Amino acid sequence: MGVRASLVALLLPAALAAQAPAAGAPLRLSFADAVRVASSEAPAVALAGLRNDEADARIRQARAALLPALSLGGSWLNRTFNSKSLGIDFSFPTGPGQPPKTLPELIGPFHLFDARVSASQTLLDWSSVARVRAARAQADGSRAERGVTVEGTALTAALAYLRAVRAQAVVAARQADSSIAAELVGLADAQKAAGVSAAIDVTRARTQLVTAEGLLLVGRNQLDRARIDLTRALGIDPSTPLAFTDTLAATLGAADVPATRDSAVAAGLTNRPDLRAELARAGAARQTGAAIRAERLPRLEVGADYGVNGRTVPGAISTRDLTLQVSVPILDGFRREARLAEQDAVVRESQVRERDLRQPGAVAVARALQGGGGGQYRGDRRAVEPDSGARHGHRRALRGRDRARLPGTGGRRRPNPSLTHHDQPTDQRATLWRRRSNQTSGVNPPRRRLPRVHRPRLRPSRRPAAGGAPCS
Fold first, then answer.
1. Computed over its alpha carbons, how large is the radius of gyration of the chain?
2. In contact, 42 and 233? CB cutoff 8 Å
3. In the structure, what pLDDT confidence band is assigned to residue 351 with cuts at 50, 70 and 90?
4. CA 91 to CA 431: how far, in whole Å?
5. Taking the CB of residue 9, how many other CB atoms lie within 10 A of it?
């Protein structure tokens, strides 16, 4: 037995080490994994789940007023008391001509033992029933608020994942730009050494290399910040290395939505968690008001106890008590009316918020359909779009404004660091291809400055004045 325990103690750490992931290995994370982790394990979602548990506990608290109550009690008493303090004359006649007998003023000390079982049950209490319903409505509102938290956390994680993947793609593009710019520097040096290019071309190529390296540093900084934002949205350690398994594909995050506008608006309003939370909050306020109004109704309760008591334990005798109690509240200083007014105000506030959520929700769905286009609503969108000729003319004007043509560039776009990574490498690749072809074909002779020719300026001839005299 001891040998077996020793073998287990030796082999168990090795087995655990084999199952554990390697130290420093990046965490492979897909878009679906990020949304799933944020929806279930994020700190905000955990807090919302705890608030939901609190609401469920409040339901059980409200239901306890309708359930029977049972208690056990026992006591031991040793006391003395003054018989005169009771206000009763305890004198007893003894016979003719004899003084009456009276109890002594000080009685005791003596012992008293008591053991008792008490039980009570509410037979009729409509206000407690309404409070249970109000607690259930509040629990529904808490679950709807948890849905709002889950949706917001999932949305934050999804956007953080997309930003991180985009930053990773930008870094890859900037690395390609830096490689191309470095090769352009080498070509410019070779052309200058061969005497077919000016020194300004080398300076220009080196400037482009420095710009590409600076943009690469900016892209890496943005990637690090995007990873930190993603780890914060997921609730994991910010120092955890991440490896993204998804790319910016067209199918990333795609979902099936209704094609028609009315169906999409109805689905959006039905599945909107903040609207469900507001409806549940209004229902809880109505149920709370109903419970307050039910407090004016009679309340019926029955209670009983059974036990033994006596001066000694062997000499104790059994006693019992049975009570049927009816209580009707009449006036509580108008506190009940003030609580009703408060709940009515909460209901009206919730109705205003509900309308404020429904209208922007329908508008948001309509805008999403206009932006994405789809199904039957795509044809209805033509009525609200501007004229096609004016729209295309505006687009051509924007393209013309963005194209800054340089002399000698052949109509190419001016290199701009603010452009996206899809535009800049295209111009640099075109420049690289052109320089390679010119170097192999011997074209592109060195540019030389021509001497400036001074031409005499000719003044316009003076016209004679009206009197024939020349103008001075």
1. 45
2. yes
3. confident
4. 130
5. 9
Percentage of the chain surpassing pLDDT 90? Answer: 28
In angstroms, rounded to a whole number, what is the distance separating the alpha carbons of residues 301 and 128?
A: 13
Q: Is 99 exposed, middle or buried (0-12, 13-18, 19+ CB in 10 A)?
A: exposed
pLDDT at 210: 93
**Is 464 in a helix, a strand, or coil?**
strand
The answer to pTM > 0.90 is no
Q: Which two tokens stand for residue 213?
A: 């390296």
Tokens found for residue 424: 């800049």
CA-to-CA separations, 379 to 265, 367, 392, 413, in angstroms, rounded: 17, 14, 19, 36
Decide if pLDDT at 359 tops 90.
no
**pLDDT digit string, tens, across residues 71-129:** 999 999 998 888 888 778 777 777 777 777 887 888 888 889 999 999 999 999 998 99
CB 287 within 8 A of CB 305: no
Rounded to whole angstroms, the Cα distance separating 122 from 128 reads 10
* CA 457 to the chain's CA centroid: 76
* Distance between CA atoms of residues 32 and 161, nearest Å: 10
Give every CB contact of residue 431 below 8 A, 6+ residues apart in sequence: 184
Domain spans, the chain: 255-297+335-379
Q: Kindly list the distances between the CA atom of residue 107 and the CA atoms of 41, 120, 430, in Å, as whole numbers in the listed order.
A: 71, 36, 118
- 298 prior amide bond cis, ω within 30: no
Which residue, among 213, 219, 225, has the nearest Cα to 180 in the 3D structure? Answer: 213
The tokens for 427 are: 């111009």
Tokens for 462? Answer: 């003076």
In the block, which residue shows the tokens 């080490």?
17
What sign results for the dihedral spanned by CA atoms 407, 408, 413, 414? Answer: negative
**What one-character-per-residue DSSP string does 124-153 give?**
E-HHHHHHHHHHHHHHHHHHHHHHHHHHHH
Angle at 39 between CA 35 and CA 40, to 5 degrees: 125
Helix count (H) and strand count (E) of the chain?
A: 11, 8
For the stretch 12-28, pLDDT in tens is 344 334 433 445 688 88
Q: Mean pLDDT throughout 353-358?
A: 82
Query: Can you list the alpha helix ranges (DSSP code H) found in 195-334?
Result: 199-234, 261-270, 273-294
Q: What is the pLDDT of residue 395?
A: 47
